[in-house]
């Protein structure tokens, strides 16, 4: 009984493949999305803006850290001469400065921070445009399945270079053809 069910399943799969046009096999291609984003002028410009913001905020964070370090060193020098209530007040100020730096880092660089929000708002429309061009290339080339293969994503473990459509997508993006 189990054998007949198994053979029936195989027969059904063969019928589905041959009736859906996959008799000669599906046409498959792949792109390197990281390379596309590295070479697409709009993505390059967006990444420059993101990087500039990040550098500006990193400089501010470093300035805050230096300021905290300087005030802490001053406090350590003066501590033996200070009264207890003055020590407590200065310690509280130091803790407040440290917390302010931690909050600034979280506000700017955290998962829901300004940098993440700006990155998403700048890159989302670009990624959507890239996906649209990939879909257009796939349709034009009659590709049923398009994979991504880049340094971070190794979903496609091997792909013959003749099925790499990365440069075609980059070319169409640069020429503004969707």
What can you tell me about this protein's structure?
The protein is mainly alpha-helical and 178 residues long. It is built from six helices and two strands. A two-stranded parallel ribbon has the order 1-2. Helix 3 packs antiparallel against helix 5. The longest helix has 38 residues, at 41-78. The protein is rod-shaped. It starts with a helix and ends with a helix. The model is unreliable at 1-9 (pLDDT under 50).
Note the main attributes of this structure.
disordered N terminus; Protein Binding, DinI Protein, Chain A; mainly alpha; rod-shaped; 71% helix; 178 residues; 6 helices; single chain; two-stranded parallel sheet
How would you summarize the topology of this molecule?
Elements (H helix, E strand, L loop, with lengths): L1 H18 L8 E4 L1 H7 L1 H38 L5 H26 L4 H27 L4 E4 L17 H10 L3
Parallel strand pairs: 1-2
Helix pairs in contact: 2-6, 3-4, 3-5, 5-6
In short:
The protein is mainly α and 178 residues long. The protein has six helices and two strands.
The overall pLDDT average reads 85
Strand residues, percent: under 5%
Find the CATH topology.
Answer: Protein Binding, DinI Protein, Chain A
User: What is the annotated CATH architecture?
Assistant: 2-Layer Sandwich
In the sheet with the most strands, the strands line up as: 1-2
At the first level of CATH, the class is Alpha Beta
Supply the number of helical segments. Answer: 6
Give the class from helix and strand content and strand pairing: mainly alpha
Number of strands: 2
State the end-to-end distance.
53 Å
Shape: rod-shaped
Helical content, roughly? Answer: over 70%
The helix/strand order is HEHHHHEH
Query: What Rg do the Cα atoms give?
Result: 29 Å
Major beta sheet summary: 2 strands, parallel
How many domains comprise the coordinates? 1
Low-confidence stretches: 1-9
**In the CATH hierarchy, what is the superfamily?**
Skp domain
């Amino acid at each position: 009984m189990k054998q007949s069910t198994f053979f029936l399943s195989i027969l059904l799969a063969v019928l589905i493949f041959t009736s859906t046009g996959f008799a000669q096999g599906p046409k498959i291609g792949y792109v390197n999305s990281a390379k596309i984003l590295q070479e697409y002028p709009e993505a390059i410009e967006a990444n420059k803006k993101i990087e500039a913001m990040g550098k500006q905020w990193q400089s501010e964070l470093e300035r805050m850290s230096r300021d905290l370090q300087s005030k802490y060193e001053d406090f350590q020098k003066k501590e033996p001469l200070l009264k207890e209530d003055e020590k407590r007040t200065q310690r509280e100020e130091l803790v407040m400065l440290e917390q302010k730096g931690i909050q600034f880092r979280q506000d700017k660089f955290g998962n829901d921070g300004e940098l993440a929000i700006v990155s998403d708002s700048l890159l989302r429309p670009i990624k959507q445009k890239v996906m649209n061009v990939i879909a257009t290339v796939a349709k034009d080339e009659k590709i049923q399945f398009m994979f991504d293969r880049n340094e971070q994503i190794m979903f496609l473990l091997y792909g013959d270079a003749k099925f790499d459509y990365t440069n075609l997508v980059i070319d169409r993006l640069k020429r503004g053809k969707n």
